Amino acid sequence: VSRDDPKQAVKVLVTGAAGQIGYAIVAMIARGQMLGPDQPVVLHMLDLPRAADALNGVRMELIDAALPLLRGVVATSDEAEAFKGVNVAILIGGWPRKEGMKRKDLIVKNVPIYKSQASALQQHAAPNCKVLVVANPANTNALVLKEFAGGIPAKNITCLTRLDHNRALGQVAEKLNVPVGDVKNAIIWGNHSSTQFPDASHATVRTELGERPVKELVADEKWLREEFVSTVQQRGAAVIKARKLSSSLSAASAACDHIRDWVLGTPKGTWVSMGVCSDGSYGIPEGTFFSFPVTCDKGEWSIVQGLQIDDFARSKMEASASELKEEKAVAINIL
Ligand code: LMR
């Protein structure tokens, strides 16, 4: 703790830190984009032994960037050292999707990794550690963490659908030719997969005449139900096709948004999408890791209640819930 900054540094773990998302996110975290401009951080970076040189290079660059909020860097391939005492864990490590694969094709490779990370979390992380799973299949990896990291409360384990949420805001902003910061309250329901349901029926745009519903401004029901939905569902694949690599800067940015809103709170009147353990809200089976609209306050998320769900939305949500049930069965089979 330095003279002019009484705030204790927060320890943030990034797994897969030598990868593309890792490279983008560590700079964002160390610049205060995740925990705020006055919050010092210590970065714990984990990657596989074969990436040790690359990881050390990232560590060197972080030092070279002379970032005032960065109070320490641990770069290691040892899980125990990486997870030790961390307050926030961003779990990116795992096999990435390549062109032609579905996200759930990664279950066989990534679910066993998440079982082992569950025990590292339970044994070494701070007991109140907030966990965000980014690696695919994100919802099912989060479920595996919950099952095998008994010491970490289920409410502290989440998965990333903020990327899809931000993609939805981006599509609406492009369609209406408005600044994306004026669009809010889109919803991603379900799995971070092509069965997710991007829902703009409650979204609004800030205009000179106050907030107006997106569905009124777009006035194209077909676009909202078809093109908008499939563009957001398929966006990850479209980026992979274009870059030959999966989304990285947008994934890193979304992960920062997710943790920032969770820790520092959502603005009044705004909700965001997070993959969380269902409490049965909206008829989604309890214990399913499902993306819901949430608001956050004092470090806790709560699912937005009482939204109208029409038959179209209901059938989309059920399809995603049943895909998650199938993924769970496959995961159990593997483990
Ligand atoms: C994404 O949504 O971009 C990531 O989940 C990568 C992928 O496989 O689509």
Automatic annotation (TrEMBL):
This protein's record includes keyword Lipoprotein: no
Matches recorded under InterPro entries: L-lactate/malate_DH, Lactate/malate_DH_C, Lactate/malate_DH_N, Lactate_DH/Glyco_Ohase_4_C, Malate_DH_AS, Malate_DH_NAD-dep_euk, Malate_DH_type2, NAD(P)-bd_dom_sf
BP terms from Gene Ontology: malate metabolic process; tricarboxylic acid cycle
Domain Lactate/malate dehydrogenase N-terminal span(s) in chain numbering: 10-157
Binding site residues for NAD(+): G16, A17, A18, G19, Q20, I21, G22, D47, N110, V134, A135, N136
Entry's EC annotation: 1.1.1.37
Reactions that this protein is recorded to catalyse: (S)-malate + NAD(+) = oxaloacetate + NADH + H(+)
Domain Lactate/malate dehydrogenase C-terminal: 161-329
GO molecular function, one term: L-malate dehydrogenase (NAD+) activity
Residues at the active site: H192 (proton acceptor)
Keyword NAD: yes
Key words of the record: NAD, Oxidoreductase, Tricarboxylic acid cycle
Transmembrane segments: none
Residues bound to substrate: R97, R103, N136, R167
PANTHER family attached to this UniProt entry: MALATE DEHYDROGENASE
NCBIfam families assigned to the protein according to its UniProt record, in alphabetical order: MalateDH-SF1 (TIGR01759), MDH_euk_cyt (TIGR01758), PRK05442.1 (NF003916)
Family: Belongs to the LDH/MDH superfamily. MDH type 2 family.
Name of this chain's protein: Malate dehydrogenase
Organism this protein belongs to: Lolium multiflorum (Italian ryegrass)
